[in-house]
Design goal:
globular; 44% helix; 16 helices; 442 residues; alpha+beta; 15 strands; four-stranded mixed beta sheet; Immunoglobulin-like; Glutaredoxin
Length: 442
Amino acid sequence: MIRKYLLFVFVLTSLMSFGQSQLKGTFEPFTKDIKWVMLYQIKDGRQHYIKNTKIENKSFYFEMPKELSSGMYRIVYRLQGEGFLDFLYNKEDVSFKFNPDYPEETVMYSKSRENKMYQEYLVSILGAQQYLDSLQIAYFKDPKPSTAATYQETYYELKDIQKEYQNKSKSMLAFNFIQATQRYNAKTVVEAPQEYLENIKINFFEHIDFQDPILVNSSFLVDRTIDYIFNLNYSQDKTVQQNLYKESIKNVLEIPKKTSLQKDLIQIIIEEFVKSEDPEMVRYMLDTYYKKLPKEQQSEGYISETLAKITVVVGAIAPDFKWGEDKQLSTLNTHKNYIVVFWSTGCSHCKKQLPEMYAFLKDYKDIQVVAVALEKEDTDFKKLIPNFSGWEHVLGKGKWKNDIARDYNVESTPTFILLNANKRIIALPDNYSELKENVKAL
């Protein structure tokens, strides 16, 4: 009777776990700064949170929910730098190990037919592509007929590799990525470098379908878009560079695609220009593309937050503000340099660093501090400001919602901004130690 019961439990457990796939990963080498892993699904080029888990014995483990659809997924283990890895999931167990500092270059799959297939393809096709490129470069330097002949042989070998893997991956999720990954190559060597680059740009999206739902719900289209706009266009002349950007953006955004993907691509391109601190291109993207989206897809909050991010950048004039009866940042003309510091009486770092900063700046007579206290009320503010006589003190009621804090995109305290006499931003120190170095360098 007991044996029959145990057999029943075994069968029941097996039936319950049937279809429940597992994701396992191991860090090699393991670093102590990694304490957790978050699992995301990629949709329209954006990551959507599913769940998280802790690291145990250098590894992590997820039971993949049955309702998850096939597609591209992402594990995130750091919030900055190289801290994520994308993989394909098609209702099968996925197991891999990788170096957390170089995830894409080192990942090795022990389980997952889909990922093994795509990785095997990438190794084969990239090796052949690099050799073909090296022949083209060699021909530019020394146009020998033998190099041209070897190029053409390699071209057809590369085509054969592509065809082989497309045939091997039919009916697999990997097929969509294998088909879209292939790059344009001329059948014969190109005579001039400029013609070579133009051919790549013109045919860059030849094999990519922006309406393929598998590609749409992945990071693939976003990555290729960023490559096309930012890696195929370069000029030392700023005006020429911006014209190259505008032309490339126009080409990408004219490709037919889902409305939701169009919006996401526009925002992702804007984010890239924010990162590179290019306010002119950010405003161009907002005016030319974002504000032309259907009204229901636009957000005034997104526009104002984006503009705030490019307002406070090195080289820009600091946003103006007033305090007291007649004080205004733009009209201060008493010193050679100014420091705007955002702080709060409830901030422990501020209480420690502001007295240190006050003592340090006594030796710098040509610097004026404008201290903006982000507070809910003024009681503690009035108690503390006598400790910093000689500074200009501004009460920023409303804390993070205060207009000055919003104009400066302040997300934490203390925040330091170093200005010249014309109130142009000359440094944005990440911390007090960096501020001291910036001041010493004046």
